[in-house]
Specification:
binds uridine-5'-diphosphate, 7-stranded parallel beta sheet, 10 helices
């Protein structure tokens, strides 16, 4: 397959988030023009590359979205904005269906009015639910066990109809567990619930301990297994997906490294990388957590001509640790 590169004007929603900010930087480094949208409810303005055109926009308000499309030249959209915390989705499902379906519809509607025809959608391994096979291929059964996964799957199902009716070409990228940091951009959520930042905060002493959610799963050591993929590798896959969108043979791609690490193995890696003790306690399972999520990512390797650079948990955790040491307080907005 020929790899054709042409500079585009790309609108990124959720551009001030952990993954969004890295994607924006990657697009700008590849000479694309970026219109960066975020409502800053979870993201950080300082995380957005200075060469991007930032527009504070709430996707729940169609008029705000439409205004951006009428004021900016846009060739393609990477739709990252959304709610993504599994635990929270079990407490407040409506928030997830609104953010992940209705807000996305506002973007699609603005696209069709403005004849924007390329759409890359951030989906998730949570669409699969409890795996019927390991690793998970794109054809594995989708039976989400939390509203987060259910909302993303519902939105995936809308996309073929916008292709059919309006010719909006789309690619769905199902992320496994995004992790790690670049030299300047890393993970700093306002309320942190993700494993690696919590482990590193414990190493730094800003938390007293890590709670391990569930040690009685049917896995090699009883804790959950996840496929941790470096955020830079996720970003490079988006670039490939966008640049190849009209030639791609498939619509859905898993993005993972193809092997998993248990929560206890991640903790162990972090103890080695940081040289710190890192206190951990065993806690109850977190509702909504499948025991194992590991990607079969061959399709992305072949079609997107993409290979993750980070394939070992130690190097992923090390990148996050270096960032944490440089920016112990995260982004100061
Ligand atoms: N986890 C944990 N303790 C924590 C946070 C996470 O044991 O304080 C576990 C969680 O149960 C899951 C894995 O770490 O099995 C990754 O969780 P995270 O929230 O980082 O990502 P998710 O898999 O929910 O997208």
């Amino acid at each position: 397959m020929l790899y054709k590169r042409a500079a585009m004007h790309i609108l990124v929603t959720g551009a001030a988030g952990y993954i969004g900010s890295v994607i924006v930087a990657e697009l700008i480094n590849a000479n694309h023009t970026v219109i960066a949208l975020d409502n800053l409810s979870l993201g950080h303005r300082n995380a957005v590359h200075p060469d991007a055109t930032f527009v504070a926009t709430d996707l729940s308000d169609f008029n705000q979205v439409a205004a951006v499309f009428s004021e900016q030249k846009i060739d393609a959209v990477i739709h990252m904005a959304g709610q993504s915390l599994v635990g929270e989705s079990m407490q407040d499902p409506g928030k997830f269906f609104r953010a992940n379906i209705l807000n996305g519809l506002n973007v699609l509607e603005a696209m069709r009015h403005n004849k924007v025809k390329k759409f890359v959608f951030s989906s998730t391994a949570a669409v699969y639910g409890v795996p019927t096979e390991v690793p998970l291929s794109e054809n594995s059964q989708c039976a989400p066990i939390n509203p987060y996964g259910a909302s993303k799957l519902q939105f995936e199902k809308i996309l073929p109809w916008y292709l059919h009716t309006y010719g909006i070409d789309y690619t769905i990228l199902r992320y496994f567990n995004a992790a790690g940091a670049t030299d300047t951009l890393g993970e700093a959520h306002l309320t942190e619930s993700h494993l690696i930042p919590i482990i590193l905060d414990t190493a730094l002493g800003s938390r007293s301990e890590l709670e391990i959610f569930g040690t009685d799963y049917d896995t090699r050591d009883g804790s959950c297994i996840r496929d941790y993929i470096h955020v830079s590798d996720l970003a490079s896959a988006h670039l490939k997906a966008l640049e190849l969108i009209q030639q791609l043979e498939n619509r859905v791609y898993n993005l993972g490294i193809g092997h998993g690490y248990s929560t206890l193995e991640v903790l162990d890696a972090a103890r080695k990388v940081t040289g710190m003790t890192i206190t951990a306690t065993h806690s109850a399972r977190r509702p909504g957590d499948p025991p194992v999520l590991v990607a079969k990512a061959d399709r992305a390797h072949i079609d997107l001509q993409w290979t993750p650079r980070f394939t070992e948990i130690e190097s992923i955790v090390l990148s996050a640790w270096r960032w944490k040491l440089k920016y112990p307080n995260g982004y100061v907005d």
